[in-house]
Amino acid sequence: MPEALLLPPVPARRRVFFALWPDHATAGVLHSRAQALWTACGGRLMRRDTLHLTLAFLGEIPGAALDRLPRVAAQLEGTPFTLELDRVGSWHGHRIVWLAPKNIPPALTALVGRLGSALNAEGFELEARPFSPHVTLVRNARGAPPATEAEAVHWPVAAFSLLESVHRSGVAAYRLLGTWPLAGE
Ligand code: 2AM
């Protein structure tokens, strides 16, 4: 059989999004919080290596369009900031349990605004719904989280990333496509 036929097929459409990806220490703290909430609410614990905060969800885009995204990201200006994740909540009848910041840092709002404008200018369509920063910790939970206040998780943010949703042997995973520093305005 020719070698090319043995390679996995390249999907014509790719499911991608920009996100904040936690450093190792922050991911560890988020994971501990996720475990505590999962113990209280049941459902499906998000794996430590999948925890993130979505900035812009592009959905399924043609594979060829993917090449334009690194250029968009590299041109963005932004400043580093610290996220204080101190609010617990749930959506969709408690099925999605998340951690969010009570106060959204202006630098995060500015980054998401610039990213959205730059993506729109490149012809990418984003959802019109307002940005609601959160880290999903548990899915398919069976009950409401026990409290809405949480001791803050301090997340120092100095970069943002482009991710692709992939399925490996039926398990959802994210592939890192690129990371760009918030190097100042
Ligand atoms: P969620 O964690 O609240 O489900 C990969 O799917 C990431 O993109 C997840 O963080 C997910 O948010 C987010 N996402 C999925 N569909 C989305 C949509 N239609 N609009 C905005 N974000 C979405």
UniProtKB/TrEMBL annotation:
Sequence motif HXTX 2, residues: 134-137
Keyword Plastid recorded: no
Coiled-coil region list: none
Reaction catalysed by this enzyme: a 3'-end 2',3'-cyclophospho-ribonucleotide-RNA + H2O = a 3'-end 2'-phospho-ribonucleotide-RNA + H(+)
SUPFAM superfamilies: LigT-like (SSF55144)
Tagged with keyword Hydrolase: yes
UniProt short sequence motif HXTX 1, positions renumbered to this chain: 52-55
InterPro entries noted in UniProt: Cyclic_Pdiesterase, RNA_CPDase
Pfam families associated with the record: 2_5_RNA_ligase2
EC number of this enzyme: 3.1.4.58
Keywords: Hydrolase, Ligase
Active site, UniProt feature: 52, 134
GO MF: 2',3'-cyclic-nucleotide 3'-phosphodiesterase activity; ligase activity; RNA 2',3'-cyclic 3'-phosphodiesterase activity
HAMAP family to which the protein is assigned, alphabetical: RNA_CPDase (MF_01940)
Entry-linked NCBIfam families: 2_5_ligase (TIGR02258)
PANTHER family for the chain: RNA 2',3'-CYCLIC PHOSPHODIESTERASE (PTHR35561:SF1)
Function field: Hydrolyzes RNA 2',3'-cyclic phosphodiester to an RNA 2'-phosphomonoester.
Entry similarity comment: Belongs to the 2H phosphoesterase superfamily. ThpR family.
Protein name: RNA 2',3'-cyclic phosphodiesterase
Organism: Thauera chlorobenzoica
